[in-house]
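thought: user wants a sequence for this fold. calling inverse folding tool.
action: design(structure=
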């Protein structure tokens, strides 16, 4: 007899999305069927709300999204924020100002939207990531001359910062090691990689796993009736938190190591396989 599943949390990039940032028909059908049976299906992503294909997801029955690595939880499709744990300007701006001295791509996720330095706009195509992700960044960012100043002047709280690094000919990434050292000197933040050799930081204690716990509380769902799927470092906590943690076949080794089950890859409808295995 299968363990009951009342809530399914799905990462997007590398999990629900294939390499072209598309959701397969098999995955869509499985999500739609789970939702029709009364199972809550939620997104769990490092992206901000603005990075979600809301119309498509809502049509499949997805009604919640844990975004920005757990810093903000939203209801779909009305963008109602039911939880936020963001970094205030006094916390995040000194870190941004230190990072602005280096040639890196920076994104700030604020109120569900993405903001970037204008100096980064012309170099997005230099980043080591799929073309579909580059197009997503071009399409969803608001560019400003001075990101830290913009945040200070408008007194904006930042849900998450994403830092991407330019690849070098020797296979390393410019300033990545130095930035890791800088971030490690700030105990008031949590940082990790969300994929493509990036670094992402939030307020200390913010994780996708905590976002799942909050969403369960909001919905009255027992955490022991949850299933989560993911592929990279920012998914480890939610895979540990959920009753059933599923790693994609394409997941990092450390993600597979802590998972309860390894499903098919994101190019082979691994989400659908996990849903059919445990929930349907």
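)
observation: tool returned 280 residues.
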């Amino acid at each position: 007899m299968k363990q009951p599943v009342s809530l399914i949390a799905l990462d997007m990039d590398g999990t629900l999305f294939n390499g072209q940032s598309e959701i397969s028909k098999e995955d869509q059908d499985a999500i739609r069927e789970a939702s029709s049976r009364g199972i809550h299906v939620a997104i769990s992503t490092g992206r901000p709300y603005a990075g979600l294909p809301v119309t498509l997801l809502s049509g499949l029955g997805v009604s919640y999204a844990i975004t920005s690595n757990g810093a903000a939880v939203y209801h779909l499709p009305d963008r109602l924020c039911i939880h936020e744990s963001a970094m205030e300007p006094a916390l995040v701006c000194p870190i941004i100002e230190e990072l602005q001295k280096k040639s890196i791509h920076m994104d700030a996720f604020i109120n569900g939207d993405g903001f970037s330095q204008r100096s980064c706009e012309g170099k997005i195509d230099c980043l080591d990531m799929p073309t579909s992700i580059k197009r997503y960044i071009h399409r969803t960012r608001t560019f400003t001359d001075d990101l830290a100043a913009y945040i200070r002047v408008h007194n904006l709280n930042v849900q998450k910062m994403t830092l991407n690094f330019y690849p070098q000919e020797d296979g390393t990434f410019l300033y990545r090691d130095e930035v890791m050292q800088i971030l490690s000197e700030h105990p008031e933040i949590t940082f990790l990689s969300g994929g493509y050799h990036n670094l992402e930081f939030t307020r200390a204690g913010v994780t996708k796993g905590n976002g799942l716990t909050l969403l369960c509380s909001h919905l009255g769902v027992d955490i022991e009736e949850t299933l989560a799927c993911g592929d990279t470092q920012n998914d480890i906590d939610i895979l540990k938190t959920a009753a059933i943690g599923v790693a994609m076949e394409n997941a990092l080794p450390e993600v597979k190591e802590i998972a309860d089950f390894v499903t098919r890859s994101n190019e082979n409808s691994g989400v659908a396989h996990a849903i059919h295995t445990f929930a349907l």
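thought: summarizing for user.
answer: Here is the designed sequence. Residues 89-203 form a domain with the Hypothetical Protein, Haloacid Dehalogenase-like Hydrolase; Chain: A; domain 2 fold (CATH 3.30.1240.10).
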